[in-house]
Design goal:
Blueprint: H1 6-11, E1 19-20, E2 23-24, E3 26-27, H2 38-51, H3 61-81, E4 89-92, H4 95-106, E5 115-119, H5 128-137, E6 140-144, H6 154-160, E7 165-171, H7 183-192, E8 196-200, H8 212-215, E9 219-223, E10 234-238, H9 240-245, E11 256-258, E12 265-266, H10 280-294, H11 298-316, E13 322-325, E14 334-339, H12 344-352, E15 356-357, E16 359-361, H13 366-372, E17 377-381, H14 388-405
Parallel strand pairs: 3-15, 5-6, 5-7, 7-8, 8-9
Antiparallel strand pairs: 1-2, 4-10, 9-10, 11-12, 13-14, 14-17, 16-17
The chain binds 4'-deoxy-4'-aminopyridoxal-5'-phosphate.
Keywords: Lyase, Pyridoxal phosphate, Transferase
Function: Catalyzes the removal of elemental sulfur and selenium atoms from L-cysteine, L-cystine, L-selenocysteine, and L-selenocystine to produce L-alanine.
Enzyme class: transferase
């Protein structure tokens, strides 16, 4: 790969070259949804211009091409995650659907009194599906504590694990705090307790490939749209042995082997979990996004992101009354913060007037907000296409807001 050069990267993201409210756009909301490089848009346009057809059933050339693109994309994801085989890669709508699929799939194995462990920093997508399945099965959701820095309390985790623990479902990276959790250790301990491990990788994969075999987790989920790919598609990785045992998630076409009114048998993996016509073009787009990421100088990219965050931290410390929520040792470049005397949503509105897009609110992590005893945060999330100049302009704007409004 050629050395990482943010100015060259920015040429691949045409959307960033626009003005918003009369100011050059500064997009700092990639943790909510990332922008797409031109090659992703082109791959999707090319698909609709040339190859569009349904998959797996065409007795014709376009059907073959659509299928090749769709299944080729599955291979790309398999390699990105280092899964053993592409049959372990299930297409879903996103992280949310992936976790719902697993929760439903494991439900038949859960009994009254069984325990499901999540953490206090989970996105609602990794809380609510487990609550629903707990309600159905009589199992209990238990919560790993965190400390003031926004790190998991490993002692609390160890204390929760016991013979009744059936599932440990945790995020690899917090969307609010940016904390990188020690999932290797969490998985090892969960396995020793005989529990399934479900890792929410939504905020982890935008920062590089993942090795699910090295992690040895049972399930891993992510969304394409945070990984510079299109919306509407995501991935569930699962170990074959578990996916084989789990019942189908939805019924319909594609997922069956043979249907009769007496008895229906199901298709092989991964199709057993993919009822109906899938998001074909989106799969092609996601593969293009992964190819784009994989071709970058990854060490350079990580160093760039790190530099952005360090600069942000340095500038943040100079603003009176600014408090960073999430000060873990290991972080991705995501900064949640509050400014005394200002509501987060006002910070968002005032920044938008300056062309700066951040996210404000509870970030789908209400239990975490409650623990910190705050209504929400302002969150600036940095991605590979952001620059030091943008970080400086964000904090110039925040300094001004702090002076004028507090
Ligand atoms: N988990 C985490 C950590 C997230 O950040 C998000 C998206 N904000 C999700 C799950 C849900 O992803 P999606 O909405 O794409 O299903």
């Amino acid at each position: 790969a050629t050395p990482f050069d943010v100015n060259r990267i920015r040429q691949d993201f045409g959307i960033l070259q626009q003005s918003v409210n009369g100011k050059p756009l500064i997009y700092l909301d990639s943790a909510a949804s990332a922008q797409k490089p031109e090659c992703v848009i082109q791959a999707m346009t090319h698909y609709y211009h040339n190859d569009n057809a349904n998959v797996h059933r065409g007795a014709h050339t376009l059907g073959d091409r659509a299928t090749a693109g769709f299944e080729g994309a599955r291979k790309t994801v398999q390699q990105f995650l280092n899964a053993r085989e592409s049959a372990e890669i299930i297409w879903v709508r996103g992280t949310t659907e992936a976790i719902n699929l697993v929760a439903n799939g494991l439900a038949p194995e859960l009994e009254a009194g069984d325990e499901i462990i999540v953490s206090r920093m989970e996105h609602h997508a990794n809380i609510v599906p487990w609550q629903l399945v707990a309600e159905r099965t009589g199992s209990i959701v238990r919560v790993i504590d965190i400390n003031e820095a926004g790190e998991l309390d490993l002692e609390s985790y160890k204390n929760l694990l016991n013979a009744k623990t059936r599932v440990v479902a945790v995020t690899q990276v917090s969307n609010v705090l940016g904390t990188i959790n020690p999932v290797n250790e969490l998985i090892t301990l969960a396995k020793a307790a005989g529990a399934y491990t479900v890792i929410d990788g939504a905020q982890r994969v935008p920062h590089g490939s993942v090795d699910v075999q090295a992690l040895d987790c049972d399930f891993y989920a992510f969304s394409s749209h945070k990984l510079f790919g299109p919306t509407g598609i995501g991935v569930l990785y699962g170990k074959r042995e578990h996916l084989e045992r789990m019942p189908p998630y939805q019924g319909g076409g594609e997922m069956i082997e043979r249907v009769s009114f007496e008895k229906t048998t199901f298709n092989v993996l991964p199709y057993k979990f993919e009822a109906g016509t899938p998001a074909i073009c989106e799969a092609v787009g996601l593969a293009a996004a992964i190819d784009y990421m994989q071709a970058l100088d990854r060490t350079g990219m990580a160093a760039h992101e790190q530099k952005l965050y360090e600069l942000a931290q340095e500038r943040a410390e100079k603003i009176t009354g600014l408090r960073i929520i999430g000060t873990a040792e290991q972080k991705v470049p995501v900064m949640s913060f509050l400014i005394d005397g200002l509501h987060p949503s006002d910070i968002g509105t005032l920044l938008d007037q300056q062309g700066i897009g951040i996210r404000t609110g509870h970030h789908c992590a209400m239990p975490l907000m409650e623990w910190f005893n705050i209504p929400g945060t302002a969150r600036a999330s940095f991605a590979l296409y952001n620059t030091e100049d943008e970080v400086n302009r964000l904090f110039d704007a925040l300094e001004k807001i702090q002076r004028l409004f507090t």
